[in-house]
Amino acid sequence: MATAELAGKHLVLGMTGGIACYKIAELTRLLVKGGATVQVVMTEAATQFITPVTMQALSGRPVYTSQWDGRVPNNMAHIDLSREADAIVIAPASTDFLAKLAHGMADDLLSTLCVARDCPLLVVPAMNRQMWQNPATQRNVTQLRGDGVDVLGPDSGPQACGETGDGRMLEAAATYEAIAAFFAPKLLAGRRVLLTAGPTFEPLDPVRGITNRSSGKMGFALARAAQQAGADVHLVAGPVALDTPWGVIREDVQTAQQMHDAVMRSVADADIFIGVAAVADWRVDHVSEHKIKKTADRALPSFSFVENPDILASVAKLAHPPFAVGFAAESGDLDVHAEEKRLRKNVPLLIGNLGPLTFGLDDNEIILYEAGGVTRLPRADKQTLARALIAEIAKRLPDTSLIR
What we know:
The protein folds into 2 domains: about 170 residues, Flavin prenyltransferase-like (Rossmann fold, 3-Layer(aba) Sandwich), CATH 3.40.50.1950; about 190 residues, CoaB-like (Rossmann fold). Helix content is about 35%, strand content about 25%.
């Protein structure tokens, strides 16, 4: 998570009663770390699950619980608290509170504040599966969506009551991701992005193989940034230990051939293809069925190699290719090698970096190569670079890219 992507945002975080209140402590920490200021407002029921003292310590601001709070000079907390807010987020949002919102009820500080707001409202439901599935709840949620309220979740899984199903509140990290995505400019709204990330692994035998040091961090950061920019994102990932970005469809593969096949199955539906993965150029022509053992005479094993399919070139050669973006990780002479690769693979945009020096790191410096010249993006953390790169790609998309 980039540390300043919510910088300048002021959020009213409304908490209603439910065991999921414990998740809001971590959510508050993430929002503050992301640069937002957070004003917590709690219902009386919420204070039965977590204390205002805890939320004040985490948010760094006094917590409001009563519409009669005398700390507001005009005694109109329900008006004043929302006027500086960029959004109100209700988390957890109980069954009862969703019903209040759907029917415009205003019988406490938080509900009155929501009715009197002039900013966006986001709700994060949290309840038992039968409460979520109840027809009345579903009608209320439909009404809220129709009224322009963003409903984040719910998730499905084990619940505090011991049952399993829909209604579980999103985890704090997922809620943060959904809030960050809400505020991100929708530069790729309606676009479909197909993206590869991470290394590939070419087996020699059941336990050994050829791979590289790519961590996948840049590719996953780009997938996250594209999703936040409003795109439908399909991420084809090599073997990495990274969490799937919120809202992204992930397909895991191991070898270059598997990655090629996954891309070619889906590329017809893509408006943009971004080949970030560090794909192995070669594989052994025969993978040993069993572990290769040392021999008594210590003779070294020998291997013959065959070339792997070129994923980026295969995409660029299609009769109606998406806007194709390649990556070049070089150990030296970056300008020469990157431009040569762009021309050879016939892609409109190629991103270059000194890959071996940045593999696994959280920051990077990248250069954009295209027919019109070279653009250098200043060194930054990879998530910041990803957002900047998505903005650069959006500026270069042809107007006809949605008509394919």
